[in-house]
Design a protein that fits this description.
There is one protein chain. The chain has 10 helices and 12 strands. By secondary structure, it is of the alpha+beta class. Strands 10-9-8-11-12 form a 5-stranded antiparallel sheet. A 4-stranded antiparallel sheet has the order 4-7-5-6, with no helix packed on it. A hairpin with a 7-residue loop joins strand 11 and strand 12. 44% of the residues are buried.
Length: 306
């Protein structure tokens, strides 16, 4: 029987999400017949290393955020020679850095939002571009820290005062329309999901993980050419970053001027959530794959990325 250590928890702002993902994965892998060793990760790396002795056959990386999906734990596991799920050091680091990832996407010819980085303190002085626009951390996930600056709003100073995500921020045009996402497994893009956030909200942290925070429509009710384009772009972004295993690409689809509209790639998540409200398991289920089968697929595709 294959012995699998599940790393979950971590020390990022997404710890709570990771704990839920990890708990789900542990149960699913046991259901699939694996010998599972849960490893709740905290601030002591030595404790994590001790928990990985004797060496497991594979590590299921259910960590989110800093140190879990930015290439850090991937480098540790590469050093130890333990196969692990999801992407390796390079792809993980690139995807987590929104500036670097956007440059890779643009170089690959994929449509991205207009904008760039700004010194956060300068945002209190003037709008860096015409409103509406989006301010987001360069290195966070799960919509942590994302702010939308709307026409007539006066929140810049408050956003700057409360900012805790580094000296610089990403500032991009706000793209109206709809939120779409596409999961990728290996060389296959799965489906297109439309995410309808609760009334009056964009797809923020609460919408992603709160009970009833959003409605997922899969397959999305968009024109066939947009479905094909989203599937193609998600797989192209996965490959451009050098991702392995599963990933999820997030898009904005501006259909406000009519169909077919403009599809814009926002980012790629190399550690898609595996909570009860997560999107990748829904898309896998649509194609006939149970949650246990999805987790088992990830384990069987685990590898070192040296």
């Amino acid at each position: 029987m294959k012995r699998v250590a599940v790393l979950y928890g971590g020390i990022s702002v997404e710890r709570a999400v990771s704990l839920v993902s990890g708990t789900q994965v542990i149960a699913a892998l046991r259901q699939a017949g694996y010998d599972v060793v849960p490893v709740e990760v905290g601030s002591d790396l030595r404790a994590v290393l001790a928990a990985l002795e004797p060496r497991p056959d594979a590590v299921f990386n259910a960590l989110h955020g800093h140190f879990g999906e930015d290439g850090t734990i991937q480098g540790v596991l590469d050093w130890l020679g333990i196969p692990y799920t999801h992407s390796g050091v390079r792809a993980s680091a690139l995807a987590m850095d929104k500036v670097a990832a956007k440059a890779v996407f643009a170089a690959a010819g994929l449509a991205v939002a207009r904008g760039g980085t700004e010194v956060v303190a300068d945002l209190a002085l003037a709008d860096p571009m015409p409103a509406p626009y989006v301010i987001k951390p360069v290195n966070e996930g799960s919509s942590v820290g994302v702010e939308i600056m709307r026409v007539g709003g006066n929140r810049r100073a408050a956003v700057v005062a409360a900012w805790r995500f580094g000296r610089q921020a990403m500032v991009e045009e706000f793209i109206p329309g709809r939120e779409l996402t596409v999961g990728v497994m290996g060389d296959r893009a799965l489906a297109v999901t439309e995410i309808v956030a609760k009334a009056g909200s964009f797809y923020d942290y609460e919408s992603k993980y709160g009970d009833g925070g959003s409605l997922h429509v899969v397959p999305a009710a968009v024109p066939p050419e947009i479905t094909a384009q989203a599937l193609e772009m998600a797989l192209a972004a996965h490959r451009a970053l050098g991702c392995r295993g599963a990933s999820r690409a997030d898009f904005r689809y501006d259909d406000t001027a009519g169909e077919p509209g403009r599809l814009v790639l926002l980012e790629v998540n190399t550690q898609p959530g595996l909570t009860p409200t997560s999107l990748l398991p829904e898309q896998a289920a649509l194609l006939g794959m149970s949650f246990a089968e999805l987790c088992a697929w990830m384990v069987e595709h685990a590898a070192c990325r040296v």
